[in-house]
Design brief:
GO terms for molecular function: DNA binding. By secondary structure, the protein is mainly alpha-helical. Helix content is 46%, strand content 11%. It is built from four helices and two strands.
């Protein structure tokens, strides 16, 4: 069935919010459908995550025609007390380094 994520059990290191934010950081005009496919989430889940991120000031968007252009607030600090002082930009930098490393692997 198209649009349904693969089943997953157990825990993961990154939250779905972090995954969605990383995809948007890579492509500020990504469509919800594409974000969902990349993150293996439903489109509805991605819409909810984007709404959460916007509500708390981590993300905003503007309409350009039928598309959304997202803007990440890189200076916003992460929410969990254990990451006190760590910014969104720092997190995205770490994720981008990992992605670049994966792209170079055979």
């Amino acid at each position: 069935m198209e649009g349904v994520p693969e089943p997953h059990s157990g825990w993961t290191f990154l939250t779905n919010h972090a995954r969605v934010l990383a995809v948007i950081a890579d492509n500020h005009s990504a469509r919800i459908r594409d974000i969902a496919a990349h993150c293996r989430l439903t489109e509805r889940a991605v819409q909810k995550i984007i709404a959460d991120l916007e509500q708390d000031g981590y993300l905003s968007h503007t309409k350009e025609g039928r598309s959304n252009i997202y803007r990440i607030e890189p200076g916003r600090l992460l929410r969990h007390p254990a990451e006190a002082g760590l910014s969104v930009a720092a997190l995205l930098s770490l994720l981008a380094q990992d992605e670049a490393g994966r792209a170079r692997r055979p």
